[in-house]
Amino acid sequence: RGCAFSPDGLCVLTCTSVDNTLRLYNTPPPVPPSTSSVPPTRKDSDDQSVPAPAEWRTALTSTEGNMDTVRGYQWYPLMNSSNPPTCAFLSYTRGNA
């Protein structure tokens, strides 16, 4: 179904058609440059060391009632992660009429 970044760019909202579950992820923080330690690495297809990707973890899940098909979702336009009352989204499902 795709994804929607929050207006402040710090969160990502996704939904899959398999289970109709909305999942909210906080974007991983950037890795600050450090001279005292070497960041974790992995090998790419050419056996070159590259920085290990940051791990994304689900911060919130919401399953739509009655397993209706989620048709879409949208962030509150003034959402700001540093202001919790604005951290909202809505979703809409197929009607059962």
Task: Summarize the model shown.
The protein is mainly beta and 97 residues long. Helices cover 0% and strands 38% of the residues. A hairpin with a 5-residue loop joins strand 4 and strand 5.
What secondary-structure arrangement, pairings included, does this model have?
Layout: E1 3-5, E2 11-15, E3 21-26, E4 41-43, E5 49-51, E6 58-63, E7 70-75, E8 89-93
Antiparallel strand pairs: 1-2, 2-3, 3-6, 4-5, 7-8
Could you characterize the architecture of this molecule?
With 97 residues, this protein is mainly beta. It is 0% helix and 38% strand. It has no helices and eight strands. The protein has strands spanning 3-5, 11-15, 21-26, 41-43, 49-51, 58-63, 70-75, 89-93. The strands form three sheets. A four-stranded antiparallel β-sheet has the order 1-2-3-6, with no helix packed on it. β2 (11-15) and β3 form a beta hairpin. The protein starts with a strand and ends with a strand.
Salient structural properties:
two-stranded antiparallel ribbon; single chain; 8 strands; 4-stranded antiparallel beta sheet; mainly beta; 97 residues
